[in-house]
Backbone:
């Protein structure tokens, strides 16, 4: 009998608390960005596809679904750290030995371009302009340096060149200043 | 001809860390001198031992950490730690006390935390507490001032008793502590505490020879000497006035109120200010920049906290003097204090204005 | 408590937090008159000398310019022009070491003075007769940008719409050594006051406050005397303390106000101008003398004559130093700007610009170089010195840890980089350098974030467009299929008619569907393309005719008419020109060709640069191919690896041969053929490793190349049409295979 009353009272308590929690979950729901959006905001939006997904948003979706957070070379260490923070997982090193993260943009050697438009089709951010049979060129300000246009070019006229240093973007690297030696 | 690239500013104030440390050590000298004259030469031997140990342990750790030794030895920070610990321990404590203490201060408290500037705790005080807790007997064997000693101690006696526990003429430290009338003497604070616990009133206790006017015999002069050195440091802008002033003010106020409320059991404010290591702690130990608070308001809070803790432990705690504990406890609170006492940046509103 | 204005009138000067008192060392230069320099051999005029964008170039290399002539034009409000400091010839316009801490090259105009110093026509303005817009335009056109150091365009600062309570003239000059403004005030106080009058006209402030540090008694007296007629001008001496000349600090000193975080002084009714700027404004308006020179303090113990000089903008630092008796020592530092905020120069060809107030050549004894950085001992001397009440050591930790969030929390952005913290640091930590790096990092991150935002938007827009296009293509394919069925039933065989009919059908079918505007546009585009093609073919035919005429002219007896003669002459000239043009690229291509072993294209290339390009492309394609095949040499047999080579070779040969055969062919065809060859080569190369999967994609190419090769020597018009048909077919095939 005592066991029965205990069971009943515990069961009732469970019901009551469950109802309260359920109500609270609906009543006090905190409106946040969906996880995918939050992840997407952390990704560098180069749309390079080096993660194996066709763009940053799909990779964000994949991370939300449980994929590794270390597949984004353009984002580098910093992005991985932020993702680890957001997802509450451990920081992992980049899954491939990636080269140092130097900002690069595509450059089309214009006299060799045959106007095949293949690179235009490959560019995920429409940063290449040009028409069929006419020379193409890259909008440097829009290029994300994703490398995706290099492979499709039939005549290999696209180079990835590092962004030239300007005084506005200079990062106070005093050791890099060439000192002229005069006698 | 080639040109040198450097970052602005190209002009520097010529006071370096080493100079600051050296000035602090120099400002200690009056206090050390008075201590040596009034309490015997033991303190000088302790100093020597401490400095040698500090340099050796610092060099050892720097070798292990694969850092350049000379620049860091030259910054005089190890020297200062050694000096502060040497003057804090009883002058005739056995040699291994100071060696263990200094090595602990340098290796464990300073270098293992990342070296100069990275230690959370004041190295000298952390070592002092370690010694006090581990070797309570040796750490409380303070000889009375030489004027009250039954046996005259020569410098040679000091060396002998530090290294062999017996003076050249064969007296043990306990024997040396005993006064002419056969009563074992301790520091004024210790004596007072013992007397009060035995049911004597303050005025009765103050009749003992270790007391002199309102403070302890000898201790008054030692404290005055450290006060003078401290004022010199403030005048030289080596330390900020905020920490010492708030320590002394807090101690003065609390003991003043308490002694008015209970004149028989609590000593007056002047006794507290000029007894034990009060001045040494206020001007030389608590002001250690590395472990003290760094904001101006924070320094006032930091100092007041030390003053309060010293008062509480001296009057209600288990130890006669307490500046080491007080400094360590306040050190722990520094990150918190600093965080909440950030100054208002130019053009920003204070937190209250924002609300 | 009296009102703020009353207090200011009564002469109250407030104080700011922190600050330092470095030795001023101004007496070496502030007692001597301003010297003038001999005309330099070359003037290096950077096209951008202010904060903003450079103007549009107005001059060409080799052009002679007059003194004061604008070299660039201010085509938008953020642009400020530069002017020729003297008459002379523009030698070059090329990157040159910039007067910037980074010393990165920036576009610089090099002027060779001709020694005549000939002015352009000058049109001084009469202030009483001109309105604000005229004045502002004159200030902008005269190239005036803040001369205190920041170089903010003056016309923007003077043309603000908000009401202005106080105009503050900054004559504090708190950095050690510098006495340029001091000397300017000593020698030209009345002109400065005239300049202030003009600024007052533009801004209508309640009062003008002229802040001068109390170590400049002569300048203060001169300014007081010059202002004596103007009752709302107040000359205020402020105690000597660095950095009282900082904008925010001087505002606090003179008005006890703080510029709220993230705002500008104008938001609290204050505008600050440098005293040198006021002088430049007066010169520009009253004399039509644009900003082409400035006073520069040249100081330091390596100079035998430390003094202030009037330097033309663009004068290389070496000229300045030489004129002052420069005796360099080993590892000499040359600092542009003061010892607190100036930067070192890597070489002496850096020119004086609008913001250059000092050139410092100190000895090591005078300004010892920073020794090794030691650990921070948390003494917080830096916090006591910081004029912005920041906590420099906390900022240092977070800068080292690259914790940008914490840096923002500790208000790194409010750091004015005055260097007071690093000056007092006993551990000689280059604090400011750490902050600069951190700030640059944060700026970069913000730029990246913005770029990521844009990239995301573009990516999404593109995806949307692709989706839409896919839908449209699907529908169009269905329509086309229907049209083809129609076509087949009607039984028209002619290729041209076929194509035209298809276009028409496309149009016809696209029209009724209103929501398919896109398709219609595409169809129109197709039609236009067709027209363009026809036009080009006509052109090609014309060319062919010309070539014919040429041939005729080579047989002199046959041509009698003057008409054809003229045509022949024209053709000959054209040919000569073409040849000349051809010679250059040919030389460039030659070495590349020597690498590949095909003799034929080499010879062909020598004949025609177009062909050379083709050959080069072939070579590249081959090289790529080879590289790809080599990587897979283990799995490939010998024949397989050589197969694509042979194939490519055959294609090349045929292309080249056909080119050679049709000598009168237009270059367009050649390009098409070359592209085909290259594409084919690449595709074949790609196909090798994955033969089965690639088969479908290589298929459509075959008819195309066949067609191209067979018709290449025929009528260009037909060939082009046929090629177009082939391409269309191939595409269709590919589409159907894809879908």
Residues:
């Amino acid at each position: 009998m005592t066991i029965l009353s205990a069971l009943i009272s515990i069961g009732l308590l469970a019901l009551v608390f469950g109802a309260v929690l359920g109500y609270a979950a609906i009543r006090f729901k905190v409106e946040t960005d969906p996880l995918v959006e939050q992840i997407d905001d952390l990704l560098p939006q180069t749309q390079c596809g080096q993660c194996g997904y066709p763009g940053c948003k799909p990779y964000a979706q994949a991370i939300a679904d449980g994929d590794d957070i270390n597949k984004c070379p353009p984002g580098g260490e910093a992005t991985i750290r932020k993702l680890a923070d957001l997802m509450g997982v451990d920081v992992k090193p980049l899954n491939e030995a990636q080269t140092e993260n130097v900002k690069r943009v595509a450059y089309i050697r214009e006299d060799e371009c045959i106007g095949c438009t293949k690179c235009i089709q490959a560019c995920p951010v429409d940063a290449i302009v040009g028409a069929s049979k006419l020379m193409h060129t890259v909008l440097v300000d829009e290029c994300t340096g994703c490398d995706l246009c290099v492979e499709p070019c039939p005549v290999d006229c696209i180079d990835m060149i590092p962004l030239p240093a300007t005084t506005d973007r200079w990062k106070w690297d005093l050791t890099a200043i060439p000192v002229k030696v005069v006698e | 001809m080639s040109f040198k690239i450097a970052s602005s500013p190209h002009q520097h104030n010529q006071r370096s860390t080493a100079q600051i440390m050296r000035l602090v050590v120099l400002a200690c000298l009056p206090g050390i001198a008075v201590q040596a004259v009034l309490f015997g030469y033991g303190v000088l031997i302790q100093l020597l031992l401490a400095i040698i140990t500090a340099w050796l342990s610092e060099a050892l750790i720097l070798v292990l950490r694969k850092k350049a030794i000379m620049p860091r030895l030259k910054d005089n920070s190890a020297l200062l730690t050694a000096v502060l610990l040497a003057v804090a321990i009883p002058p005739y404590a056995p040699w291994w006390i100071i060696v263990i203490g200094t090595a602990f201060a340098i290796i464990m408290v300073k270098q293992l935390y990342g070296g100069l500037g990275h230690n959370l705790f004041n190295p000298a005080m952390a070592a002092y507490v370690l010694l006090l807790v581990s070797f309570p007997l040796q750490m409380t064997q303070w000889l009375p001032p030489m004027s009250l000693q039954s046996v005259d101690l020569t410098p040679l006696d000091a060396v002998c008793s530090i290294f062999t526990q017996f003076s050249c003429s064969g007296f043990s430290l306990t024997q040396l502590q005993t006064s002419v009338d056969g009563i074992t003497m301790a520091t004024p604070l210790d004596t007072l505490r013992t007397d009060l616990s035995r049911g004597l009133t303050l005025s009765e206790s103050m009749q003992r020879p270790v007391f002199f006017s309102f403070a302890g015999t000898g201790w008054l002069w030692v404290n005055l000497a450290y006060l003078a050195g401290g004022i010199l440091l403030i005048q030289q802008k080596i330390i900020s006035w905020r920490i010492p002033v708030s320590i002394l003010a807090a101690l003065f106020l609390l003991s003043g109120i308490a002694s008015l409320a209970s004149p028989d059991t609590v000593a007056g404010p002047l006794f507290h200010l000029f007894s034990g290591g009060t001045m040494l702690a206020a001007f030389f130990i608590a002001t250690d920049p590395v472990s003290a608070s760094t904001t101006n308001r924070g320094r006032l809070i930091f100092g007041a906290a030390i003053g309060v803790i010293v008062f509480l432990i001296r009057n209600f705690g288990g130890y006669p003097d307490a500046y080491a504990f007080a400094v360590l406890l306040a050190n722990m609170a520094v990150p918190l204090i600093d965080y909440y006492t950030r100054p208002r940046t130019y053009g920003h509103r204070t937190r209250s204005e924002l609300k | 408590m009296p009102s703020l204005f009353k207090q200011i009138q009564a002469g109250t000067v407030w104080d700011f937090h922190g600050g330092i008192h470095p030795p001023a060392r101004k007496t070496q230069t502030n007692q001597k008159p301003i010297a003038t320099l001999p005309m330099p051999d070359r003037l290096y005029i950077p096209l951008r000398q202010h904060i903003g964008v450079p103007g549009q170039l107005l001059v060409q290399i080799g052009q002679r310019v007059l003194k004061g002539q604008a070299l660039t034009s201010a085509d938008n409000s953020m642009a400020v022009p530069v002017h020729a400091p003297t008459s002379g010839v523009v030698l070059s316009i090329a990157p040159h070491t910039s007067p910037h801490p980074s010393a990165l090259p920036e576009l610089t105009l090099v002027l060779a003075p001709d020694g005549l110093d000939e002015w352009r026509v000058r049109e001084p303005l009469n202030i009483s007769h001109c309105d604000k817009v005229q004045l502002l335009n004159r200030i902008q056109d005269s190239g005036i940008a803040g001369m205190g150091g920041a170089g903010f365009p003056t016309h923007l600062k003077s043309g603000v719409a908000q009401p202005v309570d106080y105009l503050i003239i900054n004559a504090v000059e708190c950095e050690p050594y510098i006495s340029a403004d001091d000397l300017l005030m000593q020698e030209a106080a009345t002109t400065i006051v005239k300049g202030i009058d003009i600024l007052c006209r533009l801004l209508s402030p309640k009062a003008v406050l002229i802040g001068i540090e109390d170590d400049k008694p002569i300048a203060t007296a001169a300014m007081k005397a010059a202002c004596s007629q103007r009752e709302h001008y107040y000359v205020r001496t402020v105690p000597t303390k660095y950095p009282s000349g900082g904008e925010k600090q001087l505002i606090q000193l003179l008005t006890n106000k703080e510029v709220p975080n993230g705002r500008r002084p104008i938001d609290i009714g204050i505008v600050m101008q440098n005293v040198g700027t006021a002088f430049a404004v007066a010169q520009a308006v009253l004399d039509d003398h644009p900003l082409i020179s400035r006073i520069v303090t040249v100081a330091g113990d390596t100079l035998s004559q430390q003094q202030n000089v009037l330097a033309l903008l663009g004068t290389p630092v070496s000229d300045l130093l030489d004129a002052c008796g420069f005796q360099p020592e080993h590892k000499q530092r040359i600092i542009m700007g003061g010892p607190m905020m100036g930067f070192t120069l890597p070489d002496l060809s850096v020119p004086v610009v609008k913001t250059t107030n000092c050139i410092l050549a100190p000895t090591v004894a005078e300004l010892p170089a920073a020794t090794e950085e030691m650990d921070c001992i948390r003494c917080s001397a830096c916090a006591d010195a910081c004029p912005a009440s920041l906590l420099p050591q906390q900022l240092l930790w977070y800068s080292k840890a690259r914790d940008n969030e914490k840096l923002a929390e500790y208000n790194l952005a409010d750091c004015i980089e005055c260097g007071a913290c690093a000056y007092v640091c006993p551990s000689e930590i280059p604090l400011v350098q750490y902050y600069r790096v951190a700030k640059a990092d944060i700026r970069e991150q913000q730029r990246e974030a913005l770029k990521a935002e844009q990239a995301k938007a573009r990516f999404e827009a593109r995806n949307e467009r692709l989706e839409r296009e896919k839908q449209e293509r699907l529908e169009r394919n269905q329509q086309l299929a229907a049209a083809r069925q129609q076509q087949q039933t009607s039984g028209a065989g002619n290729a041209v008619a076929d194509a035209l009919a298809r276009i028409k059908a496309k149009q016809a079918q696209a029209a009724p569907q209103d929501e398919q505007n896109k398709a219609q546009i595409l169809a129109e585009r197709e039609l236009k393309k067709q027209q363009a093609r026809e036009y080009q073919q006509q052109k090609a035919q014309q060319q062919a005719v010309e070539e014919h005429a040429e041939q005729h002219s080579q047989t002199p007896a046959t041509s009698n008419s003057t008409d054809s003669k003229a045509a022949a002459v024209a053709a000959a000239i054209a040919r000569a020109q073409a040849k000349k043009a051809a010679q250059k690229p040919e030389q460039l291509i030659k070495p590349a060709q020597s690498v590949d072993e095909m003799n034929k294209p080499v010879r062909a290339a020598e004949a025609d640069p177009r062909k050379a390009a083709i050959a080069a492309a072939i070579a590249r394609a081959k090289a790529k191919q080879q590289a790809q095949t080599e990587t897979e040499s283990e799995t490939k047999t010998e024949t397989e690896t050589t197969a694509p080579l042979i194939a490519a070779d055959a294609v090349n040969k045929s292309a080249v041969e056909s080119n050679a055969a049709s000598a009168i062919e237009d270059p367009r065809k050649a390009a098409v053929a070359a592209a085909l060859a290259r594409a084919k080569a690449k595709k074949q190369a790609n196909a090798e490793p994955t033969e089965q999967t690639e088969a479908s994609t290589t298929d459509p190419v075959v008819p195309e190349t066949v067609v191209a090769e067979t018709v290449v020597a025929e009528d260009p018009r037909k060939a082009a049409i046929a090629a177009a048909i082939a391409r269309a077919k191939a595409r269709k095939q590919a589409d159907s295979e894809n879908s």
Notes: The radius of gyration of chain A is 26 Å. The mean pLDDT of chain A is 84. Chain A touches chain B through nine residues (CB under 8 Å).
